Amino acid sequence: MSTIARRGIHFMQRLNSANVSSALLEKGQNRGELVRALGGAVATSSLLGVPLGHNSSFLQGPAFAPPRIREAIWCGSTNSTTEEGKDLQDARVLTDVGDVPIQEIRDCGVDDHRLMNVISESVKLVMEEDPLRPLVLGGDHSISFPVIRAVSEKLGGPVDVLHLDAHPDNYDAFEGNIYSHASSFARVMEGDYVGIRSITTEGRAQAKKFGVEQYEMRTFSRDRHFLENLKLGEGVKGVYISIDVDCLDPAFAPGVSHIEPGGLSFRDVLNILQNLQGDVVAGDVVEFNPQRDTVDGMTAMVAAKLVRELAAKIAK
């Protein structure tokens, strides 16, 4: 049984939830059934790990991130309450459905096209269990395409995408790979707000082509008030938030593959996230590279905090 399942059981036992059977508490296999039995949850964030790193153009360490993020969430050095006051031990706030077995699937000879379909179908399975909403642990940023595709298809329409990143990730096919982590948003492109500080001529051209609103770090001081008071999701099925850990200045998160100085502070990101007005239906935290997290697991804790606060934003 997962750590989150055990902690959730402990929390629910403290609630003396008479309407939840002891068998359901002990087995905890069907997270949606468990949350529905507790009652009172309109939306519950549900962790789904996608440990994929082979589409990274530089280092493949993000494949090892999901278990390190989970470990940091529950390491005991901080409490389980988010800044909004939601307790992650409550299964109505956070559940965990485990990882997609990426390496095992690849070992069977499955190509990237089929692998992306597997990821999409895994996300749809999570969304079958109302009120669960997927909160995906990457992995490199190539996972965002199949996840966003699945969310949009499952909800029956487009979603607004808030993409926080040091890079636009909108190359048509970086180094010939249409599924590169640098091409994920060329595959998505419904129209999104993007925080960028490392952008090429092609990146700007792609944004113009797809009608994407981009906000670069060099103008962040000017745009701060707008970006910290976003209102998204009108006329669409909701809001998807994709957080690449390298959107943060490396002073806050050195454990990433692509280190770009001059980024957001951790509080900048939380202000954008917490003040956002809109129905957040799913999200991901990607590109944490444990192999470069040399400062005593600091970036793991940063990634975990991002997951915790994003979980609070999704859960209702």
What is this entry, summarized?
InterPro entries: Ureohydrolase, Ureohydrolase_dom_sf, Ureohydrolase_Mn_BS. Pfam families: Arginase. The protein has 316 residues and is α/β, with parallel strands linked by helices.
What does this structure look like?
An 8-stranded parallel β-sheet has the order 2-1-3-8-7-4-5-6, sandwiched between helices. Helix 4 (65-73) crosses helix 12, helix 6 crosses helix 7 (144-155) and helix 11 packs parallel to helix 12. It is 38% helix and 15% strand. It has a single domain (3-314), classed as Ureohydrolase domain (Arginase, Chain A). It has helices spanning 3-15, 22-27, 31-38, 65-73, 102-107, 112-128, 144-155, 184-188, 201-210, 220-227, 266-275, 298-314; strands at residues 44-50, 94-99, 132-138, 160-164, 192-196, 213-216, 239-244, 280-286. With 316 residues, it is α/β, with parallel strands linked by helices.
